[in-house]
Protein: protein-glutamine gamma-glutamyltransferase
Organism: Sphaeramia orbicularis
Amino acid sequence: FNSTSSRSCSSSSSSNYDSTKFLDIFDTNMMHRADESNRRLHHTTLFNLDSLIVRRGQEFQVKITFNRPYKPAEDKFALEFVIGSSPQYSKGTYIPVFPTPDRQTSWAGRVLETSNNVVTMGITPAANCIVGKYHMYVAIVTPYGIRRTRRDDSRDLYILFNPWAADDEVFLDDETEREECVMTELGIIYHGSYDDIAERTWNYGQFNHGMLDACLYILDRCQMPITNRGDPVKVTRQASAMLNSRDDEGVLVGNWSGNYVDGVAPTSWTGSTDILLSYYRSRQPVAYAQCWVYAAVFNTFLRCLGIPSRVVTNFFSAHDNDGNLKTDIILDENGRIDRSRTRDSIWNYHCWNECYMARQDLPPGFGGWQVVDATPQETSDGLYRCGPASVQAIKHGQTCYPYDAPFVFAEVNSDVVFNVRSKDGTLEPVKVNRTHVGRVVLTKNPGDLTRRDITDQYKFPEGSPEERTVLEKAVKYGCKREQSNPSPADVELNMPTLEVTMGEDFELTLEFVNHSGETRTVDAYISGSVVYYTGVTSSEFLFRTPTVTVGPHKCKDWSLQSVKELLDIEARTYMRHLVEQSNLNFIVTGKVEETEQIVSAMKVVTLRNPRLIIEVSENGRVNEEMIASVRFTNPFSFNLEGVYVRMEGPGLMTAATKYYR
């Protein structure tokens, strides 16, 4: 039982060896079957893998059959667990486990039962041990030296994080949340716009065959030190970089161009299994992904390894690329948006992950849910990654705590600043919208198919004293914020919420409301564009420049005067410009002639796709064939060409694709 011992043969080292006199090993039983107690008690029965899979900080059992009954007073044996290519006791990659209470290591061991020649031993891995694939040896002390079992794949075992163990850093003391955020394979990801939220169903498939090895391969591929693989902070931060391929040949290639001819369109994926297994088998990044694909595959990785996780969607998410808390929209002197100089963008929505863990590297109170994001937006410590950032730290403006809290804080708290650019190039803020960004943050409700609003976990109510204090604190820690506060125009511009199905004509109503006692004339600019969900414009299909005159309010009853400008939007004007996810962005700006004040309004309309109808045969029975059918009716007056239908069901069927020319 010397950590430097390397003999691994079970044959005698001496011709005088008498195997009938001394203890010898006949067989080992890892009790690895899904219906046995180990996997049942460790919540790993769903893994489609013929190996022992257990969780750290919790006892599991192994049966050893010797050549004769075990005699505790005379016999000395140990179970040896090794991980990595160069196991060392000092690094926690070689762990001997002894059956006697007088000789224990970081992993506890005890004899639970002896029956004839069979010893049942209980082993409890340390609650902070390395997570990954181990091998077990059985070693016996004899007068001729140490006899050790040969390496055999049947004694491989996987040790995962344990959210059921109070001493594990990922412990989550809520069974409903644990069931959802570790064990659930089917999820819902929210997208669209905050006032017209859509759902995308996703098969995480963390228990499918090959997935555990594929997830561990990600850590091997980036050559993450074995000794760091027990720390959930380091594991999630490393994985955040490895889920994208920007700088390390990671799992997914990002593509927001609309051209996916040499890969799979991001909107075509329905689950993580194909992506992770393809990466594992080919050793090549998989094309293509956008934010929800990154978040969904990252979610599979986290749940597979035992870290509680969920996909979160932030509606109207700011992309802060210069370290400030504002998104600048540049207008010319007449109030018309200058697209060539407007560089910042607001994503209609952005998906990231939250994972649950203690943060022993932070002061008390900042553990719990942590933001991690694999979508490559900005570099962090030289790599495209983000987090883990404490949600509590973000809510309370403690942006000084690692990792990447200022970036996440800006995603939910940025101001939208309208600036007028004069002829000499100077910018003057004329309107600041402090409530547009981070409008609502959603995740799936545990245990059912409804959505859960968690906005209050990221920020205090808009305009509250607590929110002002938080913003002041964030500025103190280096976040730059727009300090000017231009007085609002006395003309208000309103745009209603619209629900439009793709291919429909519709009417856009603009209402100009006069709050003053004098007539107001507004020179307006109305722009309608097809945009990607990242807020980037693909093409403009509408541009109008009406002049609107609004009478003064009536003094007697103080009723406000308003004028409605109606625009008929024909489907033929936008259909030929559509890109995936079908977002139309209307921006209306204008200048009040009498006061030179700027008015503005923005509205994103997410066109609703035609529906897919899925039907499954009734009275499904185990081991009997079922029929699943998908129906789609073309609602348009033109042919749809190059149509792919993709379907999969966790535990039911692998992904299947059908092509219609």
